[in-house]
Design a protein that fits this description.
The chain has 3 domains: about 130 residues, no CATH class; about 190 residues, no CATH class; about 80 residues. Helices cover about 60% and strands about 10% of the residues. It contains 22 helices and 11 strands. The protein is globular, with a radius of gyration of 28 Å.
Length: about 500
């Protein structure tokens, strides 16, 4: 099967002239002219990016999904290719309803009529990995049932293996191959795909996001019904709303589009900086708008995470950008470890200034924050800065949010909306408020450690009799006593801080 699939890929590559990517190297470019003469029947007059998009569409849903993911890696691929691949639409024909019923009965181990009071065999959505049907539970609750495509894991394994072969050829024979790291891109793609193949993982993502927005003030997330979930089936609350891409319908429903755009920005920054857990696939097909104007999130297969360190450095970076403090931006990249330690701050600062300074002369509403971030990533490559995977997901999501916000409200000023939120968040992370918050979080551990400090200090202050016989050991003992004095001071400070936190907490 893999052999015939490989033959089809080779045929499609030749049909759309993608051999240009492989043979563009100076050592092999001489082969292009005779190959074009032999394959005279093919049309290579279209731009290379368009031919690549058409080839991926011809090869099927997995390659389409790969093209979608590749379009977000603008830090790695040429702009013309990224722009064309962004046009790919994941419109996959559904698998037969009888197959869906059989898969559900296999997953539940009983007839479908014993599981659902009603089940609509006509799918409401179909994608490359799964499709969705509406149903009703025996207690009357309306649900959406997401079913993994049959045999999709095997198809993915075969196609990814072939993609790895193609990536190896590109890396070896294309002049930009090594710089673009196609093998790493395919490995990243494989990771995302396998994450999406586990419905239990997606269910857990949805549950976490719902808990993070439990007040439901801005964002509605469907409830997961765990008793009906498995690795191949996800059952969740059925959500109602208007697709966010239907602007005319939103206006007709009386939705305030300006507020909706601003709320989207707040949701994004709340997910990223408050929670460090964000929906990383926020394209219009995954968002509804409830009739009261709140966002409704769908499809939780791809989620991004950030550590506290990442969140802090990102927030400081954004604020430094807003303040045009390019030196601080350069320093933050080095301090965070994103840039090599030997990077010259002045050179990196000058490169950042060359990217940012021209855009600051424009009205902020004409500036794309996502594109600025993209150009900075491209500039960073010159300094040997490796793009962090979690930051690439963040950039992808930011571009989605920005494009969506400007579609809702062309006057949306993403920077003006973001800056007060970030400054408020930073004020909560530093100073006494941040200190007290951290102490409250660590209080249970401190409460266990504090009673042990006298015993630990006594052990450290105890004099080893054997140390008296050696001048060298006596010198070490003096140094140890100095360290012990510092340890005592730290213990006293810790105890005082703990008592203050306890008092503040219960006051």
């Amino acid at each position: 099967m893999r052999f015939f699939r490989l033959l089809k890929i080779i045929f499609v590559v030749l049909r759309f002239g993608l051999d240009e990517f492989l043979l563009a190297h100076e050592r092999t470019s001489w082969m292009l002219r005779p190959l074009n003469w032999l394959l005279f029947f093919r049309d290579v007059s279209r731009p290379r990016a368009e031919r690549l998009r058409l080839a991926l569409e011809t090869l099927g849903p997995i390659f389409v999904k790969f093209g979608q993911m590749l379009s977000t890696r603008r830090d790695l691929i040429p702009t013309d290719i990224a722009d064309e691949l962004a046009k790919l639409q994941d419109q996959v024909p559904p698998f037969p309803s009888a197959t869906a019923v059989a898969l559900l009965e296999e997953a539940f181990g009983k007839p479908l009529n014993d599981v659902f009071a009603e089940f609509d065999e006509t799918p409401v959505a179909s994608a490359s990995v799964a499709q969705v049907h509406f149903a009703e539970l025996p207690d009357g609750r309306d649900v959406a049932v997401k079913i993994l495509r049959p045999g999709i894991a095997r198809v993915i394994d075969h196609d990814v293996a072939l993609l790895q072969i193609c990536a190896g050829l590109i890396e070896r024979w294309w002049e930009d191959g090594k710089r673009l790291k196609p093998k790493l891109v395919v490995a990243e793609f494989e990771k995302y795909l396998h994450d999406e193949l586990d419905m239990m993982r997606e269910s857990a993502n949805a549950s976490q996001l719902r808990r993070n927005f439990a007040d439901a003030r801005l964002l509605l997330v469907p409830e997961v019904y765990w008793d009906w979930c498995s690795e191949k089936v996800m059952v969740m609350e059925r959500m109602h709303g208007i697709p966010i891409s239907q602007i005319a319908a939103l206006r007709e429903a009386g939705i305030n589009l300006s507020k909706l755009a601003a709320d989207g920005v707040e949701i994004f920054y709340t997910q990223v900086f408050r929670d460090g857990f964000f929906h990383a696939d926020m394209h219009p097909g995954n968002i509804l708008v409830a009739h009261d104007g709140r966002y409704v999130a769908l499809d939780f297969g791809i989620m991004g995470t950030l550590t506290d360190t990442d969140k802090n450095y990102l927030a400081q970076n954004f604020i430094a950008f807003f303040n045009r403090d390019y030196k601080r931006v350069a320093e933050l990249h080095i301090e965070s470890g994103w840039a090599p330690a030997d990077t010259r701050v002045d050179e990196f600062e000058a490169a950042i200034r060359s990217v940012c300074e021209p855009i600051f002369d424009k009205p902020l509403r004409e500036v794309s924050f996502g594109k600025v971030l993209l150009r900075l990533f491209q500039t960073s490559r010159r300094f040997g800065i490796e793009i962090q995977p979690q930051l690439v997901l963040l950039q992808k999501t930011l571009l989605n949010i920005e494009g969506l916000g400007l579609q809702l409200d062309p006057e949306l000023d993403l920077w003006k909306t973001a800056k007060p939120w970030l400054e408020r968040w930073m004020s909560e992370q530093v100073g006494w408020r941040g200190f007290i918050k951290a102490l409250r979080t660590e209080m249970p551990r401190y409460a266990t450690l504090l009673p042990q400090l006298p015993r630990l200090l006594h052990q450290r202050l105890s004099v080893d009799v054997a140390a008296q016989v050696s001048p060298v050991l006596r010198e070490l003992l003096v140094q140890q006593k100095k360290r012990n004095a510092w340890l005592s001071a730290i213990a006293l400070l810790l105890g005082t801080a703990l008592l203050f936190a306890v008092y503040t907490y219960f006051a």
